[in-house]
Amino acid sequence: MKILRKLYEWVLHWADTPYGPLALFLLALAESSFFPIPPDPLLIVLCLGAVKKSWRFAFYTSLASVIGGAIGYLIGFGFWEVADSFFYKYVPGFTEEVFQKVMRNFHQYGFWYVFSAGFTPIPYKVFTIASGVFRLNFPLFLLASTLSRSLRFFVVAGLFRKFGPEVKGFIDKYFNLLTFLFFLLLIGGFLLVKFLIK
Description:
mainly alpha; 0% strand; elongated
């Protein structure tokens, strides 16, 4: 909790610097593949500080998140190329047949998996990497990412442009609870991947 709190505060401090938009872009890029703090808090603070630039900030966040998602896809794609023998050898019940079954599942429903993860608080990075591992059609992956991430961040920008600074106070007050919910969603994302493997 303390580590995530410090990361959260470090993320938000960029809003008070001239590098806020650049930090937002890099944060959204990193969060789509490995970083634990989502870009929403910084997006919110920047929108509250410069209401007229809200749509611009949402665009930066969406673009960076889609690029970061593509990086996550490539990580999954490349990782599997070097790690498949480890999984087949050391993970009980993991066979080529199981892998092919999950791959077919991803090819059939992958658009909706990625779209759901991109729009909701389910950890998006789990599904960007899984999409690479299971070879989801890349243009389809990009389409799902672009639609879901753009919808999410433009909705966030619009809501916080409308409702104002009370939201930051809410996040600060309930940070521990929100962190706990984040971990529940993270575990849920992994359980969903495990369910797909069955």
